[in-house]
Amino acid sequence: MSGQGFSVSGTLGGTLGNGGMNGGGSGSNGGGGGDLVRDVTTQTFMQDVIEASHTRPVLVDFWAPWCGPCRQLTPTLEKAVSDAKGAVVLAKMNIDEHPEVAGQMGIQSIPAVVAFKDGRPVDAFMGAQPESQVKSFIEKLAGPVGPSDAEKFLEEAEAARAARDWSQAAQLYGAVLSMENENPAALAGLAQCYLGLGDFARAKQTLEMVPEAAIDDPSVAAARAAIQLAEQAESLGDLAELQTRVEEEPSDHQARFDLAVALSARGDKTGAVDHLLEIVRRDREWNDDEARKQLVQFFDAWGAKDPATNYGRRKLSSILFS
């Protein structure tokens, strides 16, 4: 992301040091990052940025109140700096109130972020960036940044959900959402927990809270598919009756199909896959290729990393391309 859209002056520190601006006291803290996030002015830039960057890198966020992308980027920067746990500092400069430094650096559009290290500007990017890109930018400056508290809770929640410990998983997803209330993976995981507890209504309500920009996130797509499958399974009737029908008439593809959906809803993923594969083996074109389509829906609902997904895809490929 280095230097996109503008260049930074390597002589800025010297310009400031020659009396154009002086260290007239420390800037006030800003945002939610405590000592790691502060507002800086033209008068405090020398102390809070140039001098401070000899201790650790300082990111300067050039912004203005009227700038929509700035309002998107600044919270992302604050979170990434907080997650870095002191490896870098964020200095926010309102260019409407303090235009001199931005003018000296040739910054012509915002948001713009310039990284200072050892008293000099060393890297920069322009425009709103996703959190992953901001984290990579910080790691390039300060070395690897470990997982945030939210990421740790999310990992624990996924493990609890995989073990079908719905209540524990829901609590952990809730902890993530207390820090990041629109985290799509946490919302999707919480919806899956409600689904596991049989509360379809709350599962749907939770999934509706996902921001529109994240509706195609893989975890959200998986939760959406899982809800659809659960609703489908609800209308299929007694599992034992379906099993009996298939045993008595193995060529009853509809009964076998319904049994597969019912088994999936009860957590028997391998059994569900095997029955659908049996339909594909017997009649690939049955009901407009519905068995294969249902397998694909299962894979979407379970996710690419699920062992049942990998198993099903391997078996399906061997049948289709044999």
UniProtKB/TrEMBL annotation:
Biological process (GO) annotations held by this record are:
cell redox homeostasis; response to stress
- Has keyword Transport? yes
Matching SUPFAM superfamilies: Thioredoxin-like (SSF52833), TPR-like (SSF48452)
Q: Which GO terms describe its cellular component?
A: cytosol
Q: By its UniProt entry, which InterPro entries does this protein fall under?
A: Thioredoxin, Thioredoxin-like_sf, Thioredoxin_CS, Thioredoxin_domain, TPR-like_helical_dom_sf, TPR_rpt
Q: Where is the composition biased (Gly residues)?
A: 17-35
Annotated region described as Disordered, given as residue ranges: 17-38
Give GO MF terms, alphabetically: protein-disulfide reductase activity
- Protein keywords: Disulfide bond, Electron transport, Redox-active center, Transport
In terms of NCBIfam families, this protein maps to: thioredoxin
The family line of this record is: Belongs to the thioredoxin family.
Q: What is this protein called?
A: Thioredoxin
